[in-house]
């Protein structure tokens, strides 16, 4: 009787350890996939993005904030927001799109 309880307890502990290891591996895999693997030059990317803006300083400041948070700036001077979903969905406190 004592052996069967010990056996059941050890099997349950073993299964718990396996579950924890698998969960840790999944979290680590998600963290590496979600984080940007390369750093981009936000200054250059935002200069290119804001080159046609009428208020370049404001555009570059907003773009720089978005780039620092998302590590992504859509190509071109406008549009192409589908390339960088984080950049495209960031909003101000007033609910307007933050990123140019």
From TrEMBL:
Alphabetic keyword roster: Signal
Signal sequence residues: 1-23
InterPro entries xrefs: GASA (IPR003854)
Superkingdom assignment: Eukaryota
Keyword Magnesium: no
Pfam families: GASA
Keyword Metal-binding: no
Record family assignment: Belongs to the GASA family.
The protein's name: Snakin-2
Source organism of the structure: Quercus suber (Cork oak)
